[in-house]
Amino acid sequence: MTELSADEVGILTLSLRVAIVSVACSLPFAILVAYGLARASFPGKTLVDAIVHLPLVLPPVVVGFALLVLFGKRGPIGGLLDEWFGIVFAFRWTGAALASALMGFPLMVRAIRLSIEAVDRRLETAARTLGGSRLRVFTTITLPLALPGIVTGTLLSFARGLGEFGATITFVSNIPGETQTLPLAIYTFTQVPGGDPQALRLSIIAVLLSLTALAASEWLTRRSAHWQGDDRR
Amino acid sequence: MIDVDIGQRLGGFHLDVSFSAEAPIVGLFGRSGAGKTSIVNAIAGIATPERGRIRINDAVLFDAERRIDVPPESRRVGYVFQDGLLFPHMDVLANLSYGQRLRDARERFIDEARVVELLGLGGLLRRRPRTLSGGEKQRVAIGRALLAQPRILLMDEPLASLDSARKSEILDYIERLRDELAIPIVYVSHSIAEMTRLADAVVVLSEGKCLAVGAVDEVIGRVASEREPDHDDAGSVLDTHVTAHDSAEGLTTLAFDGGELLVPRLDAAIGDRVRATVRARDVSLALARPADVSILNILAATVVAIDELPGALVVVRLAVGGSTVVARITARSSRQLRIRAGLELHAMIKAVSFDRRSVGYA
What is the ipTM of this complex? Predict the structure, then answer.
C-alpha cells in the first residue's frame, strides 16, 4: 500500500524534474527583472510590471494557448529555436517546464523585488566608495541581503510549478512519461471509471510534496536571516 | 590639498561653494542643512554637481567642463558615514577587508594588522556588526574605509549617534590616525567643540554658501562667534603650550600669547602644544581686578568690538595680548559697565569651564 508503483515513481520524478528545471532556468531572469523593477527607472516600467504579472491574472488556458501559438513547432519563436538550436518545446517535458516557469514567474519576481527594495541602498553606496564596481556590489551586497526573498520566491514558484495544470495541458498535452505531471495524472485518473483510489494516492503525494516545500521554505528563510546577521548573540 | 569648486541645485536648495584647503584635518562646519553632506557626497562621487571641479592633490575627480566624473569606486575616497553602514551579513573581518581586496597591491599604504592595532579592533574580528556597540561600529567603519587605501578620508558627523564617553574615545582614535598616518581627513560636524579639537583648517558653511575658510583659531573665534553667536559652544580658540603641572592641586598651566591659563590636569607633557577653547558664555568681565573670587583665570584685556545679539545679549570681542577672546554677556551688564571699544578691563574664566572636549592636542 505504501510502496510506490513504477508508474507513480515516473510521474513523481517527471514532476520534480519539470519544477526544478523551470525554477532553475527562470531564477536568473526573475532576479534581473526584479532588480530592474526595484531599482531602475525607465519608460514603460509600468507596462513591464503589468506583463510580468499577467500570468497571475490570466486564465492558465490562455497562457497555454499563447505558448502553443508562439512556441509551437511552427510558431514564430518555437520555429526559430528549433532551427537554430534544435530546442523543441512542443509536446515535450521541456514545454511543461516552460509553462511552469511562466506561471510561477510573477510570484518569484514579486518576492525578490520586495526583498531587493528592502535592502538599504546606502549600504550599496558604501560598497561603491570602498572600490566595488556596480556588478560587484550587486553580487556581494544586494544579492546576499535579498536572499530571504530569493529563497521565498524560488520555493513559491517551485510549488506553483508542481501544481501547474491548465497552461501545461493546453501547451504540451497530457502524454504519459513525457508531459504527464502529477496534476495531469490525477486529472486523468479521475476521468476513468475506478481510477479514484489511484487519484487519491497521487493527491496524498502532492499534499506531502507541498508541505515539504513549505517547511523547507520556512527553514531556509530562517537560516538565511540568521546568516545575514539577524541573530542576537 | 583639497580643491573644491562646485555648484548644484537640489530642489529649493542651492549649493555653490569654492574653497581649497591644505591641512591634516579640514573641518566642514555649519548647521544641518548648510550643505556639508552635499559637499562630501560630491567629493566621494555619490552625488554629481552641475558645475565645477573637485581635485585631491594631483587627481582630478570631477570636472564638469572637461566631462570628467570618476566613478566612486575609482576615486579612492574613504567615506565614514554617520551611522557606520557596516555590512550586516559579514563579520567585522570581512567588513574590514571588503575594500582592501579590491585595491591594487601598488596602491596599498596600510595593512590590516596596522589598522587593527591603531583602532583596537583585535577582539572584534569575528563579531557581527549587530552585536557591536555604537563606538565599536564607528571604529570598524573607520578601519574599513582606511583599508580601501584612500587618498583622503571623509568623515560625516561620525560622532552624531554616540554618547559623550564614546565621542571622546573616537576623537582619541581620530587624533591617532592623524598623527600616525599621513592621510588627509575631511571632518564634517556642526559641533564647535569637535572642530576646535580636531580641525586645523575650517570651512564655515551656511545655506549652501562658503562663509569663511581659514585656520581654526581664526575662523572659529571670529566667524563662528559672529555667524553662530547663539551657539552654546561658540567661543575663541587659544593656541597654547603646557608650561607646568601641579599634581597636588590637579591643575595644569597653559601659556599663550596674552597670558596663562589654569585648567584641570591635562595628560600632556611639558612643552606640548594644546588648543584650548574658551566658550564665550564662560567668560565674564570686571572693570577692576577682582579680589577674593574663586575664579583662577583673570586676564587683562582690551575691548575691540561689541556685537549685539537678539535676545538682550552682546558678544564682546577682547584683545588679550596677541590673542582674541570673546565674551557673551547680557546687554544690561554691558550698559552698566559702560563697555565700549578701547576700554581696558579684566576677563575671567573659571578653570572648570575647560573640559576634555574643549582642550585637545594641536
Answer: 0.83
